[in-house]
Structure formats: structure tokens, C-alpha cells
Design goal:
Layout: E1 12-15, H1 22-27, E2 32-38, H2 39-53, E3 59-65, H3 71-83, E4 88-93, H4 95-108, E5 111-116, E6 128-132, E7 138-143, E8 150-154, H5 155-158, H6 163-185, H7 198-223, H8 229-249, H9 253-261, H10 272-286, H11 291-304, H12 319-333, H13 346-358
Parallel strand pairs: 1-8, 2-3, 2-4, 4-5, 5-8
Antiparallel strand pairs: 6-7
The chain binds zinc ion.
Length: about 350
Amino acid sequence: MTIRAFGAPHRYIQGPGALGQLGPMLAIHGRRAFVVADRIVAGLLKDRLTAATSEHLDSIAFGDFGGECTAAEIDRMTAAAAAAGADVIIGLGGGKAIDTAKGVRIARGGGLVIVPTIASNDSPTSRLAIVYTADHVLSEVRLMATNPDAVIVDTDIIVQAPVRFFVAGIGDALSKKFEAEQCYRTGGLNFYKARPPELALAIADRCYAIIREHGEAATSDVRAKATSDAVESVVEATILMSGLGFESGGLSLAHSLTRGFSAIPELSAALHGEQVAYGLLVQLVVEGRPAAFLSDFRSFYQRLGLPLKLADMGFSGDVAAALQTIAARTIAEAPYIRQIEVELDGMKLKAALERVEAGI
Ligand SMILES: [Zn+2]
């Protein structure tokens, strides 16, 4: 495979008050908007959204999103969008509302504008919609034909969310450099079923550098609900660069482990980015990184509040049994498990998980 491919949303707009750009952006794609947002998010932002778009639209309807991205919920939102005669969809909220909006776009076509209200993961810019069963088990990944038409990130909104979401977004973004490098070196494929271009690696590398330089300052600013240059740089890393980094750069072991974690019901309370952060520690152990490198990583995690052990992700059961299950399920099910230079089996992966749990 020698084809390289890179993809991105057609427009990315970020900053304090960026929501003001929503109306003109929607008007490029339609006159009747349908918003996929849950009741809480809609309650907080409905008036501002309506005011920001009234000059540019004939109508804006709000779907009462149920909170989980399931096939049934995508069907329900698609029917509501059809009833509203919508020609442009807005995904407003966290990853699940965003992914459901993508599902509606796949079903109905038309424009799609993503407005994340938290910076907790890499979903906003990508074509992927992760669909779950009603009991929160990953069931399928649906792909849009193209990336979202626009992603609008209003950092005045992002900093109002609990800091845990912001830190989880950092966890999801930190891994991209290491995963893209493994994908590149092993001849792996990105999410366009092509080889990662050099640009994707450069993005993932810069994403990591920004987080290491500004991550702590940005996190304390978000804790104080303040925007700042550090917050802007880190949000660009955790939403734009993290999304482009994985979709065009490809994934490896850190994200593969989320398949294994999903087999442990207690870990379902952990956010995706928290799981990826832990998964990255495992990947770095598997890669054979020196002890000083690992301990520097751990102390960075500690300063931010990222998980170092399963217990930090809410697990209180039999750790040895859980590690066995996580390792076996990851090896059996994860689609990118071969995109790492080390030949892995369940035993080797379990040994790496044990080292992470032991803090060595
Ligand atoms: Zn991710």
C-alpha cells in the first residue's frame, strides 16, 4: 500500500465567542437546522444558538437527544430531523451527541456543523460515529463519506465545563504522537484506509509538544473557568490536532486497549480519554521506554490528574483477573493491535499491564 491520504473538516473555528460564527457557517449549507443536543445542553444554550442564527436561518429545531449514541437513537433523531425538514444538522454537546449527529448525517445527507461544548475527546473533526448498544457496549463504527463541514469551538463554553472533561481530552490527545509513529513504522493504515502522510505525524508531534508545554497552565485556567492563550493552544491540540492526528495518522496500542477496558463494566464510568491515557502508559511500557521516561510521564499524569492505575478509573475488584480479561479481549478484538512494532500476545500484554499497575 503506497497511497497516502489526509482528511479534515472544511472549516475549523475556535476562540472565545466563536459561536457568533455559527449562523454564517450554517447558511452556507441550508436554511432549516436541526440540533442534536440533550436536554441539559439545549437548556443552557438554546437561546444563544437561536439568537446567533436567527438572521441566517428560516428555522432551528432542537432534538431531545437521549444521551447514548445507539442505532435506535440515531433513527429517532433522523426521523425528528426529517419531520423538521432539516437541511443542515448541528451536533451540540459531547462525543455522544456529536456522533449521533454524524449518524443523522449519514442517514439523511446535508450539511453538518459540529459545536463541541466539552473538549474531552477527538470526535469533533472526524468522520467516525461510534455506536453503542443500549447497555453501553461498543457495537459498530459508522463512517461519514466526508468530514464535518465545520467545527466551531467556543472556548467561553469549553471552560465552563468540569475540568475532568478537559483533562480527559488531554489524555486522548497525548497518545496521538506515539500511536501515529507506531502506525507509520509498522506499515499500518489510517482511517482513510491509506498510509499516514508525513503531515499527520507532524500534527501529532506538535499536539504532544503543546500539551507538554501548556497542559498544566491550561488545566489550572480551566479549573478557574478562565480562557487564556494556554487554554486556546491546548484546546487546539485536544480537538483539532488530536482529531486529525488519529484519523490521518492512525492508531496503535493505546486506543486498542479501550476494547479490553469495555469488557470490564466498572470501567465504563471512566471517560474515553482517561482510558486512552492509561492505555498510553501500557503502550510506552510495551515499547520498552526507559524508566526515567516512564517516571517523567507518570509525574506529568499526576500533576494533571490523569489515571495511573485501574483504581484511578474507578475499579475496585480483582485487579489480576481484570488485567487478564483486558489483555485477552484487546488481543482478540482490537482492530489496530498489529500496528505496533512489538509482537504481542495476551501474556506479553498482561505483563505490560501488570508493570503499569505496579508503577514500574
Ligand atoms: Zn480517542
